[in-house]
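Example 4.3 (complexes with small molecules)
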Amino acid sequence: MGDRQAPLVEIFSSIQGEGPLVGCRQIFLRFAGCNLHCHYCDTPREIPDCCRWEKKPGSRDFQYLPNPLTPREVARRVQELNPALHHSISLTGGEPLLHTDFLLALIPLIGGSRQGIYLETNGTLPEMLSRVLTLVDTIAMDIKLPAVTRMAPCWPEHREFIRLARKKNIFVKMVVNEHVPPGELDEAISIIRNTADIPLVIQPVTLPEGQPGITPEKLLALQERALQRLKDVRIIPQTHKFLGQL
Ligand code: SF4
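Answer. The structure with iron/sulfur cluster bound is encoded below.
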């Protein structure tokens, strides 16, 4: 695959369902592929043959475009979704930073939204972030807890990532479940606190049946512990799922 092409899963208009910008209208570019294997991931791992593109914002009328796509092809589809109607353009995945060469070519072509480019990332690829940092406006960065992902910790990667990302408008999102031990929460808090005072969003893991995988008491206990060392700690679930949004 050429450097300047990338596989996408979908391009569509919807509301942001997670984090402090919940409810803001965005154009979503969902990139295929990820460097992690989180236990709770609901994104298919296969690279799809086609990217589905919503022809009019909110219509859910899709056309299928063969993968991979060029930056110009994607920019043209974004333009047809009327960026001016939208708060921002969300680069999501998968992990969009796996496609930095593509992003470097694409982002200058997709202006016109009200608040620019919103990067949603797992926060583990700092070298990739450094290449596109000047082109993004808001960064929604994950800190991955091993008790939830069932993977090895990514503390050094997260630490370096947040050090770079703090130059932008940034918040951290942390998916939690009933089994998060205090030590993992404390490590994540240290990473945030040692770098800057960045808002932390605690997001309850969503079970396949749509229920949160954590009790209300545990959620409040995690927030209380985090509030002892951070200024802004919010509990925000995945709202788009119960609204039937993409
Ligand atoms: S980082 Fe996101 S897309 Fe990648 S495996 Fe984890 S949940 Fe899935």
